[in-house]
Amino acid sequence: MKKIYDNWRSDVLNEFAPSYGIEDEEANIEQYMTPSSDLVQKAIQDAIDANKGLHASGRPIDSRLTQGLLKENDAKELIESMRGLREDDYLRKLTLTPIHFENATGRLTDLTNIYAAAERSQGNSIAIAVSPLERYMNNLFMDTKRFQEYKENVNNATEAFGLLAYSNRYDIVQAIRLFTGESVSTVRNPPDFKPDLAKSLAGSRVSKREVLEKILPEISIKGTDYNVVQSFISILNHVFRGTYVSFTSIIEKMSSPKGKQKLTAYFDKVIEIAKSEFTKPEMRISVHQKKNFAVMATMVGHSTKSRKFQEFLGSIDRIKSMIPIYQRFHEHYTKFLGTPDLEDYEVANDVLKMLAKKPSKYNYRIYRGMYLKASVLPEGIKEGMEFNFYDISSWSRDMNIAQNFSTTVPEGHKREAGDKSVVFTMIMKRGTYIDHYSAYEGEEEVVTGGKVKILEITELQKITGPILRVLCEQI
Fold first, then answer.
1. What single DSSP character describes residue 320?
2. N or C terminus: which one in the chain shows less Cβ crowding within 10 Å?
3. What is the DSSP letter of 282?
4. Strands 386-388 and 420-427
5. 463: confidence class by pLDDT, cuts 50, 70, 90
């Protein structure tokens, strides 16, 4: 709403002036803002006609974007109504609970710790890796069947993520995020897009994850108390562990012939110590340490030629096979709420116009606060005046939010006699409640638009000064 407020005056002054021969907007704007001004009425109508039924680029609106838009008046309801899509089908295949992926993440760390012990081992004072080995050997990576289920879950989550990032419901959320958190003026007029000023819509992993949780459907995992949202977020956290440069480089080293030889040499030494009478004082092995080596030797099968140890080496190759899937998932994550381009703004323009025009099934009372400089409306605001709030306009269901905006003096402006704090209010006949996906959740934001007519003006006395309460109706 602050961006709306900051742009309001310049929008009023410059929206129609250049096309209709107004040379000095600052001095003459008042003559074009009266209810009887045919010029303004023509300008508004021309703008409506020019955009009716068209994409911002001039192409017909993609009907898939407007699927279900006439049924819901809350963005959350709208998103939740768009179920049964292909990404949901993949998500329904997430059969493992979050605990599986959290344990798997820890076992990746165990594996790197085992390899670190192998690298430190020089044949004399030898590093012990009994704890990570014990945890790792009892995990899904050592079980081919369980590993395959794990791999399919991560792969299905990756496919779902890719489809989600190109879905209708993501387009709607992306549009709302662009409108509330980035550039209102560019959403209104996509050709104004400046690539060099574009930046990511979410600067941290946490904010992206929060938006993801809101979009993902609540599908139960059969036979558990978990749902796919919880598993998907656990997979996200796991993937970040699997895409660290340090981790992928260690896996590459481990899976190479040289890396496997290091592990084999390490466990050969472990087994030798476990079987020996322990008569070499130069080894500096305590009785407690030898017990740990004996446990490790038992776990690998008493020999590096055993099937169990070969399974251990094979598990490293299985983990390596996951890296391309991890990277693909991470690419989708990077794109999600990433730096927008012109097409994103064109889609946002389409979506926001439709959300703003939808007939409302709720009788929300909504508010819009503005600080109006005396020079904008020198004759004052009067009953019967009509204003066009464009195809896309931001309002709030919270009167206090609007009042705060109405008393905020624009940057660079010094308060003058005749300046007005104004709060417009009306019953919403058209529009959509978008707060759940707003970049500034908590402002009770509604997107609406079009013309309004002033019915009544009253002055409220507040601690911050008088505020004009302007009762309107959408026309």
1. H
2. C
3. G
4. unpaired
5. confident
